[in-house]
Each structure stands twice: as C-alpha cells, then as structure tokens.
Amino acid sequence: MKQQIAMLILIIGLVGFATPDAAQKGGKGASSADPETTPMGVQHVAPNAGIKYADYLYGVIKELNKDQMVLTKTKAGVDQTFKFNKKTKFIQDGKDGSLKSLKLGDEVWVDMDQDKKTGDMIARKVVGGVFLMQAE
C-alpha cells in the first residue's frame, strides 16, 4: 500500500512538473527567451482567438515582398516560405487588412494550401495583430 501511494505521488509530481505552466515558471524545458512558447516550441494562441485559429501555422515574418513572405519560429523549426495569390486574404487586428499592413517582425497565423503542381505553400489567409495576443 505504501509503495502504491509513493508511486502515485511520484507520478503526480512528474506530471505537474511537465505541464506548460511549469515550463513558463522555470520548470524543465522552459525557454527564457520566449515565455509564450512551450518546451516543444509550439506557440500558444491567446484564449480570445479561440479554436478559430488553432489549425493555422504560427510564425514571425522574416522576409516580405509583394509575392511571398518567409516565416521564422514556425512549428517545423525551419523558415517557411508562403506565396501570395489574388485570393489571399489579410486580417489585421480582427479587421480586413492588406499586404501593406504587414511588416517584418510581425507575429502572424497563416491558413495555407499546398499547390499540387509546384508543391509551393500558398497563404489563403494571413492573420495578425494584437487581438490575438491579448487575453480577455
């Protein structure tokens, strides 16, 4: 019986230590460079962004021109290029935006498709702005 209780306490302690909250408080795997990053490098979407953007790819704009953008700090861990087309929509601060509303260093979430012929990643929607980062 004492062994079972000891094992239960050990498991609870390990599980509590490995949660994202523990990582943000300096637990194992914590990143001092970015408190919004879990130990695995996955970015959190703010609660008010909800499930709506959960399937979007997060990144920080590293390069930007009229035809494409390159994101860094992505889930893949490598820079990723997204091409724009005439159907690409831009949302800034919860409102319709434009390519001109984006700048280097902006944090964005991208809904994308892959071109079946070329393999290029095409940005269908690029969402950015402070409304994603602020909690309600």
Using brief descriptors, characterize the structure shown.
136 residues; alpha+beta; OB fold (Dihydrolipoamide Acetyltransferase, E2P); seven-stranded mixed β-sheet; 7 strands; elongated
Describe the structure in your own words:
- It is built from two helices and seven strands; from the N terminus they run ααβββββββ.
- It is an alpha+beta fold and 136 residues long.
- Strands 3-2-1-6-7-4-5 form a seven-stranded mixed sheet, with no helix packed on it.
- The longest helix has 16 residues, at 2-17.
Short description:
With 136 residues, the protein is α+β, with helices and mostly antiparallel strands.
Domain count: 2
List how many beta strands DSSP finds: 7
Helix percent band: 10-25%
Task: Output the helix-strand order.
Answer: HHEEEEEEE
Gyration radius, to the nearest Å?
19 Å
Q: Which secondary structure elements does this structure contain, and how are they paired or packed?
A:
Elements: H1 2-17, H2 20-24, E1 57-64, E2 68-72, E3 80-83, E4 89-92, E5 95-96, E6 107-114, E7 121-128
Parallel strand pairs: 4-7
Antiparallel strand pairs: 1-2, 1-6, 2-3, 4-5, 6-7
